Amino acid sequence: MTKFLFSLATAFLSISIFAQQQKISFETSEGYNLGTVVGQKEWTVKTDNVPNNNFKVVTGKATDGNNSVEVTSTNDYTGNMTYLFKKIPEYNRLSVSADVKLEKLNSSEYYMLSLYYNNNGNYSWAGGFNFLISGKFYADSDVNFLDLGNWIPDRWYNLRIEIDHVIEKNVKYYLDNQLVHTSALSDKVLRANDLNFEFDNDGSGFIIDNIIIKDMDQLAVNDINKTQISIFPNPSYDFINIKSDAEIKSIKIYDIKGSLIKSDNLSKIDISALPKGNYIISIETRSGIETKKFIKN
């Protein structure tokens, strides 16, 4: 719990000129070599019968730069899905995107950009894009799914998933930069920390490139156009004042676990009844929503 509290506080208090973002396009400049990606930069596989050499960094098949990862089928169907995956940071508000291209219809089925909470080997699924052998595909999770129509083989798709673990507690699915579905987040997913690309090896493979992992809280902190908002006194034991250069529409206070404690729309808020500890305050103005932290003495 101490480690969790420290990580949460760091996410809200760290201020940097640059947005916190990781880009993976499998380039030599990023430290990748041609050949199997397994073992490079913590990429690994879980499979019944697909050799590591079928997961290759290749050149000339990319959407960004020169390189990408191509996964080829051995045509030996696996009853259990084959996973290419790596661990990702446990952000409170996470965005992950990737370009993917699937080889052909009527062959393999795929789960692309699948995000999981891996708790010491116990997995809970946050969501992903499910491409079926029939040509149908879905924004999918253990909570619900949405039919997105039919997918086209040998076509690049940009997939993006945004997960808010703290405030909205939902999952947003974007297809080619268009929001296509919003779902509740399973209460089993405490923090998405595992990125997977999956298929059943039934005669076709896929290519992935241009993976971008973002800490959306850090992006919000570094947005120079955001409304100027201050909270004082901080720490406080009775009242906090909210100063904003834009009209405040709503204020919500959450405890450190993300549970909503109090809603208001006033610039002076009575916190005297709150237990001592750390709190998160979400302030909505015309410019959007800004999240800050305060301490109740």
From TrEMBL:
* Source organism (scientific name): Epilithonimonas ginsengisoli
Q: What is this protein called?
A: T9SS type A sorting domain-containing protein
UniProt keyword list: Signal
> Which residues belong to the signal peptide in this entry?
1-19
Domain of life of the source? Bacteria
Protein's UniProt keywords contain Signal: yes
Mind telling me which residue stretches traverse the membrane in this protein? Answer: none
Outline the extent of the Secretion system C-terminal sorting domain: 231-295
Keyword Signal assigned to the entry: answer is yes
